[in-house]
């Protein structure tokens, strides 16, 4: 259900404007404002929208074919699949066989009426056959389940690699794009235990099986009832009621089409805010230190009292308002219709008393069949509707690997001569301006500078002036909106991205830690040597991480953030550790997504791990790095660690070109060949430390401020 809802939304093209009174109906549901699209009349004609959906299914069929071919390429999949289908379809015929034997019972009754004696042979045969049907049904169910487990696992594994590939290869602006995020979301199965392809297989097989079940049951029933008094009439009445129920079945709210709901009720919004304040551990310190819990409680009580019964989530409100509409004429007719066969049967019995036993048997047979017929018919329609969604999901699953990266790859190998990297890289910005995707303001405006091989450049300036952005453009995470960036005098966009990125090492300010072991976190700086423990240790030493990592119980195998949760239930209160890790007893915590307690590393220690990763790439390995980009590498380091870091960096720099972004003057800027002072997206001063002091501008002023802070 949830899955279908997501897909319906994404299939719509264009926009939805709640303020468009002509096409959008507004209603109040509790504290919520519900806006529903009022579609054109044609779309409301029965079948009109389903026709469109089936046309879409037809267009998407090539993707299904491709999926089938892919399934064929998975080891043993075809064999398992053939077994699975054979079992499911055979099982679908069993109810009809059982029905046929029930029909035989009718003959026993008829025989008893005609001859005043029971045909014992036939009775035993029927009983044995019905028993055999039940046992066979159970065996087939078991076989189906056994086959589905390896099938599902293999299909899931195959497509998890497919989706991993689709996600892993995306660049920053593409991955950040909302439309791409939605596309990626749709390539994931609604249920983590399944996969889109497996859902599709199950659905198709089930549809065929239900159809077989319906056709076989109806034909057996027609055959059995042909000679029975009133049989056809009772059957018509029973099925009539089923069909009426299906035709008047209320469509679930979420299937109604395009809609959106919001609330502007200030009491409700505040109530929800207050709940979060006390539920989220992040606010606990402030609540306690500020002594505000009683105030919060009083506020909460007041809002809850004002809102009364209206306080509820949107779906609660919808359910409450729907329940008021449940007594309709259609609902009453639905209740009466099932009784009709009994009424007719009673009237006929009064008219022809002799036929009562046979009629009772027929009625019983019919009502039994109608039950299973109703269920099958309902699920046939439900499943066929979902099949259209499944086919669309398969299309999306394949489309997702064709998403184009926004940053286009260049064709030119870089560098032409690998040895040249050791001499450093030339970096030049020519009138570069840049806006982040989806924003209107300039993050960089008309920036130009040239850095020669082996030079050290430090970018300083106020917060948000564009320092990090310069580094991101050099790493080609984004392309400039205007202007040109040259690397070794070649336009950066013509160079092969893979080569370019291999030639540089970057430490971002907002560096992240992969939810992998510390060793992997460092090793990934240079994937080619990621398994080389000596290199990892050397990188950790240079990054200042070796000492504290060695003190951790699991050393380099420690997971800073464990990506796998443990499962447990009803542990005694005193169990504070399990499997060597702290136990999280709090459901509230888990609900707030705070279950994974980290190993408790400090910000500075985290930064040292990130630094080690950069060292792994740039200095320890011989991977041919000629350019080092560091964005605030010492932001979380204590002064002595910062001093050591810069010393080490200068020692190891060699002829590599280095660019730093920093707020701290002194340690670095004094040694820089070029300092860029930035303000408001522009370079406002540039030169060496001495030149800028002589210039007596902003750089000199800030330098003076920082120097004064250390004067007695
Ligand atoms: N991903 C992004 N999307 C949109 N705008 C961004 C993004 N990243 C940064 N910006 C904006 O671009 C401008 C420059 O940001 P940048 O991070 O380059 O500044 P900075 O000089 O490095 O700042 P700080 O000293 O705080 O690190 C800022 O106005 C910032 O808000």
Please provide a written account of the structure:
- This protein is α/β, with parallel strands linked by helices and 712 residues long.
- It folds into four domains: 40-229 and 352-402, no CATH class; 410-503 and 624-712, Rossmann fold, CATH 3.40.50; 516-561 and 601-623, no CATH class; 567-597, no CATH class.
- Strand 1 and strand 2 form a beta hairpin.
- Helix 4 (77-115) packs antiparallel against helix 16 (356-399) and helix 8 (196-225) packs antiparallel against helix 16 (356-399).
- The two termini are 71 Å apart.
- Adenosine-5'-triphosphate is lined by residues 436, 439, 443, 461, 463-469, 509, 661.
At a glance:
The chain contains 26 helices and 15 strands. The protein is α/β, with parallel strands linked by helices.
Q: How far is it from the N-terminal to the C-terminal residue, by CA? A: 71 Å
General form: elongated
The strands making up the biggest β-sheet line up spatially as 9-12-13-6-14-15
Tell how many strands the DSSP assignment holds. Answer: 15
What low-confidence regions span 5 or more consecutive residues with pLDDT below 50?
Answer: 1-10, 41-48
Treating each run of at least 4 consecutive H or I residues as one helix, how many helices?
26
The whole-angstrom Rg is: 36 Å
Q: How helical, in percent, are the residues? A: 40-55%
Protein name: P-loop containing nucleoside triphosphate hydrolase protein
Keywords: Hydrolase
Organism: Pluteus cervinus
